[in-house]
């Protein structure tokens, strides 16, 4: 029987001073329920999106204290399973997202989830790519609102954060203080309208403390390869910093010299956009598994 | 028998005052040979990359005058076939690319192409993704060096510019003055080290004038969907401008209102990086074919 955590225990900021709502041993698998990013306040087309309580946005369920996690360690989070509700909601409005200047008023839309698709309207069904928008640990310094991404994770809105992926977070606080929320039934890279298809849900994750790790930014691993997820004030900075993180990570692990490493990453690495609408921009740099296999790269001993 | 153009006729800038080296009717299929981006000056590991003639970089074969093309029209370029040489070269160096500050001297590397792979070293084989780095038409104003991308195309270094893709360019000069070059056997999105696996080659393209079009930036179509390719001084600007182009293009074609369009593009559109190392940054915004099919979108009448 897995551990469980209900969505009544939420945070609106990642904060190292928070009291944990749950304590688990390293290696524990836990089911975590989540509200959608509007804390389930929009249930029908009749709800005025402008009239909801905007203090209750991007709730993350947690925080969970993982026994043994110390600053300087790495928290390994494997996403075993991702279940979502059968009704999603999207929203956009003036000054929200890339096209906010074209919007005259706040707008929202209820989007049913049917089988493997989200029903956008009577013409368009969008294939699901279920993912977690907000996931992370308590940051090093001041609290970070759940709507903002950073080195601690948070609102990275990254399509790769999906079932089967494993995330590695730098630990900044005792117990790591892990939390997650803000699931999307589907979202495009960039999340250009400021929302995905927002859904409540339940994630089954396994939390494990890695003692030999050293990370400055979240690292993601899936069946295709690995990616550093880096958030900065501009997309240019985020994209370049993600490359730097990967270069540092692979320099000793591949044994390549600086020039060969740059050329290899230029030919085989992928610079990608996660989101361009949150308070910081999130980019990622992806390296395929065949590269890791070729050089016998191990992530952590 | 297709028309042909040998690689001896090259330009180093896209320029509306250039004399065309070839004139073709709209609808012509033509085989165009190309040098690699170093104009084939690096043939072995013995060549000192710092010692080559750096005035002869990024040559594009052309320009080709397409009969009937007028400013305000669109030039449709279908890439029927892309053939590459069996030896590639990569280079990087101080101040080149994202990792240039880690390089102490210019470095290059000969990379054999064998079957479907490029042999990077004795451990790593990189799957080919054959593509065209430089492709475009004469720009509206001053000449643009072939190493720089822009509204006219040029050095967009976009992995999607591959066999089977169709590009649509705004026409700025009579005859369009089309040219292409700078093929890559493989390149990752971002091209973070400043070069792909650079190869000479031959492209078979069909050039067609579209009279009813109106474009501000290049549009790409392939079997997966469409993407606007936009180049700007920063990646942030490029990524946002690509979204704006797509929104303008799809607004009337889908019949969606401004809010629904923003939400649809947020859920189903993809903000992607082409390259972050050239004089302007190139981003693209991609919309999948299932969206176009759902709303019966036609690109041009």
UniProtKB/TrEMBL annotation, chains A, B:
SUPFAM superfamilies: Acetamidase/Formamidase-like. Transmembrane segments: none annotated. One of its GO terms (molecular function) is hydrolase activity, acting on carbon-nitrogen (but not peptide) bonds, in linear amides. Pfam families: FmdA_AmdA. Gene3D superfamilies: 2.40.10.120, Acetamidase/Formamidase-like domains (2.60.120.580). This is Amidase. It comes from Bhargavaea beijingensis.
